[in-house]
Sequence to fold (144 residues):
Amino acid sequence: MLVDDSDRKEIHSKLVKCLILVDKIKSNTNQQETFVERESSAEIAKVVRRLKMWSKPERQSQYNSQILNAYIELKRSGLEKITEEDIHSHIGNNSWFASNFIQMKVAADRNHGKIFDSDGRYVTIWEPVKSAVHEYERVVFQSE
Fold:
């Protein structure tokens, strides 16, 4: 061996400390993942509740309903890649669009509910709520 006994003990000690740190990091990561999963579940439940309300005829004039309806109408028209500007134009370039649309892209306490994902260019329905949005579409647009 190239190291003497005291060097081995020091190396062993450092390795044990590293393993302890790795274990702590792993534990923190697991806790963060659990927190994110809880937050996502709460957001999904909120969206499902809200979509049921928004689908009512008396709620169709709300901004969030108008934005979602515009997206669905564009999709139903055959447009595959939908941009934020497409939705904005479809509803008539209203001044209220930007502040309401952003609330539909983020998960937060006081948002409309996260409905959309955006890659910076194209807008899609957030994967965890797709089935709820399909149900909304079925009710609002009376399709199957």
Observations:
- The first strand starts at residue 116 and ends at 118.
- The two ends are 74 Å apart (CA to CA).
